[in-house]
Here is the input.
Amino acid sequence: MDTKSYLTALETVQNMYIDGKWVASATQETRKIINPADGEVIGVVTEGTREDVKVAIQAARRAFDKGGWQESKARDRAVLLNKIADLLEQRVEEFASLDTLNNGKPLRESRYDVTDAVNQFRYYAGLCTKPHGVTYDVPDDIQAMVVREPIGVVGQIIPWNYPLVMATQKIAPAIAAGCTVVIKPAEQTPLSLIRLFEIIDEAGFPPGVINLVLGAGECVGAELAESPLVDKVAFTGGTDTGIKIMKAAADTIKKVGLELGGKSPNIVFADADFETAVDYALFAIFSNQGEVCSAGSRLLLEESLYDRFVPELVARAKQIKVGPGADEESEMGPLITAEHMGRVLWFIEEGKKEGATLLCGGNRLTENGLEKGYFVEPTIFTNTTPDMKIVQEEIFGPVLVIQTFQTEEEAIELANGTRFGLAGGVFTSDVAKAHRVIRKLKAGITWINTYHPTFNEAPWGGYKQSGIGRELGTYGYEEYLEIKQINVNLNVQPSGWFKKRQ
Ligand code: NAD
Here is the structure.
């Protein structure tokens, strides 16, 4: 489809995909989808309700229990996953444009996301046909073994910051494992996932195996967490929403996977390669407008480097080209909604009130055609204290706070000093020091002399209030599998434990 025709396709109301069919919500209500770069309506989608989700869950239940999917062969599932990858790969530019249009992120980031999504389908297509399961050498004439079985019906709930790739990194392992899926995108950014379901439809999955529901988190998302017919809920989003989901899932002892927020430290020692550390300090916080769970939103700087590092960092931050993501020149796009922009600007005001020093940025950008969009300048605060809101809370925007330290121990204490534990980076030319510090970081994803590289092969997830479980790699696959122990008696005769009396 060329650019013009896919935009035209957005003019019609877009529906949910349930039990192999495109369906509108029972209420016929709709929701407008907005381009954050100019506030224009770019699509209209059906607004699902709890009733619609119940229908989707029942379809997924039937497909798993009676439709033959739980007995499906790994090789057949791999064929379907590879088919999705091939079809998606032919449409990288279209999907990238759609994510940029809907989320606002620069095109180069959207392109990266789509190719990542293609790779996820291929990775899990390959993984599911590989051997898994073990046998044990146990006492007695018993053959003890372990097999993995699909968990069942999984509900998946997605945030708006990576609309396509957050969805595919849940769908691909779940399908590879033999589960059936009901997935819900964020209400703000459903467009690329709806488009992905065209591909899923074309790939030829049996009805009910993968279902798409649309609508508000408090009803459509909540139903996925509450339903007794759902065996696992996998959620990516804010920590406060994660708490609600965990509570909602508790009544049915559902398996829960949570990928939550962060306030990750990026620690720079004085002996780091200067240019590299400045470059990555910017990339850590300002890529994807700072709307990244693992953003290096706290720069922990060794005091002796401060006078050289900070002026260079600020000068470089001021050079970042902010503009519509669809403009190839843009390096940073708009924030997702007017409401979220308001929240980010509120944090900036709180930072000033609490006595932090604003070094650059701090404002909405409204010049040069940006007036209708939700653009905020790259912003840096210094003279912060650990108790400040801007240091403790996830702002989820282009706002960096600087904290300084004198010793390795102090750096570690500051780094671990929030409720989050998602990611962290260390820049130093001392290998032993880098390892010492990384080992002490309470975080699931860490980097030495780099920040942000993420691989589908490696596990993704957080310590502390940043989550439960892992996505990606073999770990992400295991999350969709139950473990069953099978013991086979190789010497079939009575045990004699209870005496047989005449
Ligand atoms: P959010 O928590 O507001 O919403 C995420 C999803 O949850 C949406 O689909 C929403 O509709 C749904 N939802 C909201 N309330 C719900 C409820 N009561 N029950 C069920 N579902 C509900 O998050 P967001 O604003 O879309 O995304 C930003 C957050 O996501 C940030 O905190 C960010 O750190 C986090 N995130 C984490 C990761 C990770 O891998 N750890 C990745 C991306 C984003």
Notes: The mean pLDDT is 96. The two ends are 82 Å apart (CA to CA).
